[in-house]
Amino acid sequence: MTHAVKAPDSGAKNPKSLYGGTSSRRITVRDIAAAKERGEKWPMLTAYDAMTASVFDEAGIPVMLVGDSMGNCHLGYESTVPVTMDEITLLSAAVVRGTRRALVVGDLPFGSYQEGPVQALRSATRLVKEAGVGAVKLEGGERSAHQIELLVQAGIPVMAHIGLTPQSVNAYGGYPVQGRGEEAAAQLLRDAKAVQDAGAFAVVLELVPAELAAEVTRVLHIPTVGIGAGAECDAQVLVWTDMAGMTDGRVPRFVKQYARLREALGDAAKAFAEDVVGGAYPAEEHSFH
Ligand code: KIV
């Protein structure tokens, strides 16, 4: 897939900025660490295909997550649980091909790392070698620290994910806010420190109270990536279909919708259908003689 990476229209002045910077080489985990030192906030979006990824890359999104949210948003499953390594690998490779600048993070799906560090290394190695991702993400704090340690030792950058971990939906019985109450907050802090100590380069905080996320962000030297975790995180991530108004039905309260793509696409499909039925398409300029 070929496309030009244009500098995004941003007020950012630092050429090294993750968003709005002028460098067109691929972002690395060292750039992410430097942004935390500068106190710079950055955006992350999910992507599941080359064309959408190329749009976000041109818009200057510095980090793209091939999330297992593809289960709900792209593959038609009820949750992230059924997503397989084959599916994540195929779509991660597409997103890598669709991007020039973004750091592409591939999600390790449910069942691909819970057995232990060796299984995690096998799965992560596949994503790096076959799809070409620059980093992987996995869920869990203290419980996943050994996996993170081995991946990092093997040279694979790891983004951790704590707070609400959607792969545990069957254990939660839904998607409840995490870290409420003294003991739960203390556990979240222990999880955050455990993944940092294990070598994670960043940590997603999903659905945790804003005050707690702010405290984790202050305490850690690696960046926090919030989703439903308030404004104090170093970065923010949204599922792209939620962000762009493509998702069918209700979206979570923390989502801000920046477009109404579902409506726009539906209108385009209806206009096409009406033109075909009414004989307005194809017109003379669309025909060959
Ligand atoms: O799979 C995903 O999209 C995620 C984000 C919501 C962080 O894990």
From TrEMBL:
Its cofactor is Mg(2+). Its main location: cytoplasm. Binds 1 Mg(2+) ion per subunit. Gene3D superfamilies: Phosphoenolpyruvate-binding domains (3.20.20.60). Residues 1-22 are annotated as: Disordered. Pathway: Cofactor biosynthesis; (R)-pantothenate biosynthesis; (R)-pantoate from 3-methyl-2-oxobutanoate: step 1/2. The active site is at E206. Its EC number is 2.1.2.11. It catalyses: (6R)-5,10-methylene-5,6,7,8-tetrahydrofolate + 3-methyl-2-oxobutanoate + H2O = 2-dehydropantoate + (6S)-5,6,7,8-tetrahydrofolate. One of its GO terms (cellular component) is cytoplasm. 3-methyl-2-oxobutanoate binds at D68, S69, D107, K137. Mg(2+) binds at D68, D107, E139. It is an enzyme of class 2 (transferase). The keyword Ligase does not apply. One of its GO terms (molecular function) is magnesium ion binding. One of its GO terms (biological process) is pantothenate biosynthetic process. Catalyzes the reversible reaction in which hydroxymethyl group from 5,10-methylenetetrahydrofolate is transferred onto alpha-ketoisovalerate to form ketopantoate. Belongs to the PanB family. Homodecamer; pentamer of dimers. This is 3-methyl-2-oxobutanoate hydroxymethyltransferase. The lineage of its organism: Bacteria, Bacillati, Actinomycetota, Actinomycetes, Kitasatosporales.
